Amino acid sequence: MCCPGLSSDSAPYRPSTESEQLCRNRGKALPSIGRVLPDVVEFESMHESETPVVALVDDEQNIRETVGYAIRKAGFRVALYADGAEAWSSFENTLPDMAILDIIMPRMDGLELCRKIRSVSEEIPLIFLTSRDEEFDRVLGLELGADDYLCKPFSTRELIARIKVLFRRMALNSRKQLPEEEDILTCGELRIDRLRFTATWRDNPLSLTVTEFRMLHALVAQPGHVKTREQLIREAYPEDTYVSERTVDTHLKRIRKKIVQTDPEFSAVESIYGLGYRYNPPAGS
User: Fold this and answer.
1) Is residue 4 part of a domain?
2) Which of 171, 200, 222 is the last residue of a domain?
3) What pLDDT was estimated at residue 53?
4) Cβ–Cβ contacts within 10 Å for residue 99, how many?
5) Strand 204-206's sheet: what is its strand order?
6) How many CA atoms lie within 13 A of 227 on its CB side?
7) pTM over 0.70
8) Which residue has the higher pLDDT, 34 or 167?
9) What contacts 152, CB < 8 A, 6 or more positions away?
């Protein structure tokens, strides 16, 4: 029997036996919410180490324990919180390196927590965990600045893959540029670094999420060609098959908005009625 909210390919979890056995093996008590899993230091001192800290905020205990265990097994440290208020109380002192947020929670929901995090940091990757019938909340979460989302039930392997992509982008962005590491796609004034998941328009950096980057890259790789929403979903969400076409529209709207902020005349991303989208570089590009 699998834990609620996780798909069948996730490892089953038995809170009353497995977690206790893990803790007995380490000689420690069961982890409390807002503290990290066994053998990990308390949240306040997490940044003393180079190992990234992933905060998991979900009001379902089984998801916290199962997903927290999977993230820790993947090599990251984990901080667990039962709701947004508890998480924000800790984040006000020390921010994690990444946050995974459920949307519907008591006291403070994931959307409000996302707003608060984005008010102090635009850099921390944010992933939402949502139910399939919460499309409005998913779209709103993306508009608030979330990097990605997964629908319940989900595979822990899929979540770990998303986490690693986001951390890889952060690591590459922080490293000094080396000539042999360049993998640049240039289309007129738009420059895309496919290794660092970064893009610039007229040398102005664009603050794109991983999903926005993938979607823009899919369009720019074939300028003038129309990409259907289904094609864009496949390229932007290779690990997820439960993404609505409306989500594509939301991402493209955000991409346009971010480029227009640097160039009010930008109009290269075109919507083709009944078909999809295409990237049409300005004449002479």
Assistant:
1) no
2) 171
3) 93
4) 27
5) 184-187, 190-193, 198-201, 204-206
6) 29
7) no
8) 167
9) 5, 6, 129, 130, 131, 132
Nearest Cα to Cα of residue 48 among 89, 99, 79, 94 = 94
CA–CA distance, 208 with 258 (Å, rounded to integer): 8
What domain range is 52 assigned to? 18-171
CA distances from 97 to 56, 84, 128, 230 (A): 11, 16, 15, 32
228, part of any domain: yes
Same domain, 72 and 135: yes
Query: Among candidates 217, 194, 191, 186, which has minimal Cα distance to 205?
Result: 191
Query: What's residue 276's pLDDT?
Result: 93
Beta strand 53-57 pairing with 98-102: parallel
85 vs 45 pLDDT, higher one: 85
137 vs 124, higher pLDDT: 124
pLDDT of 161 strictly over 60: yes
Q: Which of 216, 100, 209, 208 lies closest to 158, judged by CA?
A: 100
Mean local confidence (pLDDT), 143-147: 77
Co-location of 154 and 34 in the same domain = yes
Task: State how far the Cα of 268 lies from the Cα of 223, in Å rounded to an integer.
Answer: 10
Q: What is the pLDDT of residues 61-77, one digit of tens each?
A: 999 999 999 999 999 99
Q: What is the mean pLDDT of residues 120-142?
A: 75
Whether residues 151 and 206 share a domain: the answer is no
With respect to residue 3, please indicate whether it lies within any of the assigned structural domains: no
Q: What is the CA radius of gyration of the chain?
A: 20
Q: In DSSP terms, which residues pair with 152 in a beta bridge?
A: 131
3-state secondary structure of 279: strand
Look at residue 285 and tell me if it is in a domain.
Answer: no
